[in-house]
Structure formats: structure tokens, C-alpha cells
Amino acid sequence: MTEQLTRNLRSDARDNRQRILDVARTMFATDGMDVPMREIARRAGVGPATLYRRFPTKEALATEAFAEQMDACQVIVDEGLADPDPWRGLCQVIEQLCELHARDRGYTTAFTTAFPHAVDLAAKRRTALASLADLTLRARDTGHLRPDFVLDDLILILMANGGLHATSTDARVAASRRFAALAIRAFRA
Amino acid sequence: MTEQLTRNLRSDARDNRQRILDVARTMFATDGMDVPMREIARRAGVGPATLYRRFPTKEALATEAFAEQMDACQVIVDEGLADPDPWRGLCQVIEQLCELHARDRGYTTAFTTAFPHAVDLAAKRRTALASLADLTLRARDTGHLRPDFVLDDLILILMANGGLHATSTDARVAASRRFAALAIRAFRA
DNA sequence: ACGGTAGTGGACGCCGGCGTCCGTTTAGCT
DNA sequence: AGCTAAACGGACGCCGGCGTCCACTACCGT
């Protein structure tokens, strides 16, 4: 349905829409969620009206902007599931999710706070979590994962990972890596 | 010097000042750092002008408001140092610092972001960290703590602990407890 | 009790972000 | 090329927080 709307748009409108999304993604990633809508519009080279016409609310914009990241998330989880060694798969999932969240400030908050009306995002989030639950069960069976581990522990870690602040993205990613390593250590049987 | 100023204040002024600090503390704790100054003034039963006269900037207000928490922080660390078993002392420090931060949203951000001009706060922060470094060294000597542990790991954990969000304070404290337990597990040799 | 002064708070103007309207521009079809 | 509807963006009014000024109030020494 989104694609139909996109197709029916006039060419210049579609270009603008795309540029807005690109700008929004990078700005949300670097500056977090509280960037002014005007600023996104300005950098995208459009007027505020255009931005608001395409995305009536910041939530709508964020939902679209993060769809890609959401898919990346799912891909990470799927790759973890595909690994023949569930424990190794789980470790990689933890590492990569942490890094993804560290690279994208906005997505982190969007993922954890989960806007009330972003059904699409929430749904994908749920399926990703379901996959994760599956993976943890299998990893636990290998004996490498602590037997009393629960999915909530992983969510806890991801949420905590979001609290890692730093001036630069690189520093944040570095911190996130160390943190993931600590988390894995804590989860090992 | 703060005490001299306090003494020289007229009785009603001193009362107002105290009420402002009390209100600020609780509001910072429950609602975080972004509460409007007006709202603090309103709840304290004073006008905005009074608030601004006593505390020209929000930073000044926060510094005073958190002085108490800062001391609590130091007390926790000192108690950990006093414990005959350094490893147990360190564990208790981790648990209690996490809980303290979970109970007070505002203090967490104040502690980690460390306002540029809050020299007083920064200084206390430094001495607390120095004590912590001492404690970790001693704990490491007991053999219970991982040999490659560094102070930064602890700071990392505290910062991550600040990322734990929840609707209620109780939920946040509960999450924080579980998180502290995980962290300790990760630090154990 | 009363005068002087420290203290107060309502009211004001400023700023920055928000969301919308409307005159102008431009894509796309014939 | 010319026309029409879609799309654009500058400009506007609104709101909420900020920090300050000044006429009024109340504490405290005499």
C-alpha cells in the first residue's frame, strides 16, 4: 500500500519524499529523536509544508525511516537462527544488535519506546522477538547458555545498551562492543 | 560558603529556598531533568522570579539538589571500601549504585553528563571514582574479580544502567537489580 | 508600632518549534 | 506549446518555556 502511494506520486514529489527519508534517517541516527522537523525539511531542501504533507506527524516519518533498520534487525536475528551453533548465533545476534543500536541513536529509542501508533513497527518488533525466543531456547539446549536465562534478560541488555552515551558515534560503538562482550560473559553457563 | 549564604538569608527566604530544593529533588527524580523551571516554582509555592533569584540557572539548582545524592554515592563507595571482603564490598557497591540511579532519573543523567560548570559535583565525582579504583584493585587481589577488569568496565555498567527505562520507579528498580546481578556475574573471575 | 529594606510574584517580552494556508511553480498529458 | 492539476514553500499564528522588571508584601531591628 505504501508502494502504491509512492508510485502514484508525481516524479518530483517522489524524489522529495525519498530525500526527506534519507535526511531523516541520518539525522535521527546522529542527533537522536528530538531534531526539529523544520531542520529535516531544510536539509532535504524542501519547505516545512512538503514535509508535513508527506508525513503528518514525526511518528509517521520515523516509522517509515526506521523500516529499513527494522528489517536489518530481522536479518540479524535470522542469521543468528541460521547458524548451526545456536550459542554462537546468539552471541553474534547480541553483538550485532548492540552495534546497530549504537550506530543509530534514534532507532534505539524508537525500538525501545515503541510509538503507540506505529503498528507496523510494533508487529515487526514482535516477530523479531519471537525469533529471538526460539534462538535462546535452542542455545540453552546446547548447554553453553545459562539454564536460568530468560528472553527478558536479553531485552534488558539491549535497553541498557541504549543508555551508552558518547560524544562520537565511534566511541559509542566501541563502548557498545565492550558492553556486548560483558553481556555474553554474563550469559555464559 | 553555601552555609554562610544560607544563614544570611531572611527566614522566609530560607524556607522558600529549602522548599524549592525539596521540590526540585523529587521532580528531578521522578520526571527527569527536563521539567520546566516554572513547574518547580509552582509546586514549591513561589513565583518564577524567586526561583531564578536563588538559582540563576537550572544547572545551579541541579548541583545543589544533587549534592545530597552525591554524598549518598560517596557513602556507598566508602561502605564498600570498609567491607573486609573487597569482592563483596564491590558487589554491594554495584548493586547499590545501580539502585540509587534507578530511583533517581535526574541524578543519573546529571552524574553521567556532568554539567560543564558544576565543579563541585565533578570534584566529588572524581574522588568517588578514585575510591572505586582502589576498591577494584583490592577486589582483584582476592581472585574473585576477573584479572582483566578495569574501572572503565564499571563505569560502562553504570552508564548502561542509566538506559533502563520503565513507566514506574518500581519497575525501573526491579530491572536495575536484575541488571546489577548480570553485571556482577560478568565481572566474576 | 513602625519604618526600612530584603524578599516576593504577577506580568511582560522574547525565542524556537509546531502545524497550516494560499499564491506560485512545475510536471506531465495532449 | 499549452493547459491543468498536483506539488511546492514562504509566511503566518499559536503555544510553551525562558529570563527579567517593578510594584507590592512581610520580616526584623529599634
Overview of the structural elements:
2 copies of one chain form a homodimer. Chain A is built from 10 helices and no strands. Chain A has helices spanning 2-8, 11-31, 37-44, 48-54, 58-82, 86-103, 105-113, 119-142, 151-161, 169-187. In chain A, 40% of the residues are buried. At the A-B interface, helix 9 and helix 10 of A face helix 9 and helix 10 of B. Chain A binds a DNA duplex (30 and 30 nucleotides) through helix 2, helix 3 and helix 4.
Question: What's the short story on this structure?
Answer:
The structure is a homodimer of 189-residue chains. By secondary structure, the first copy, chain A, is mainly alpha-helical.
End-to-end Cα distance of chain A, whole Å, is 47 Å
What fraction of residues of chain A sit in β-strands? under 5%
Give the helix tally of chain A: 10
Question: From the alpha-carbon coordinates, what is the Rg of chain A to the nearest angstrom?
Answer: 18 Å
Question: How many strand segments of chain A?
Answer: 0
Sequence of secondary-structure elements of chain A: HHHHHHHHHH
Query: Based on the structure, what is the oligomeric state of the protein chains?
Result: homodimer
Shape by Cα distribution of chain A: elongated
Structural class of chain A: mainly alpha
Unreliable runs of chain A, pLDDT <50, ≥5 residues? 1-5
- Largest beta sheet of chain A, briefly? none
Give the largest chain-chain interface (CB within 8 Å): A-B, 21 and 21 residues
User: For the residues shown, what is the average pLDDT of chain A?
Assistant: 89
Helix content of chain A: over 70%
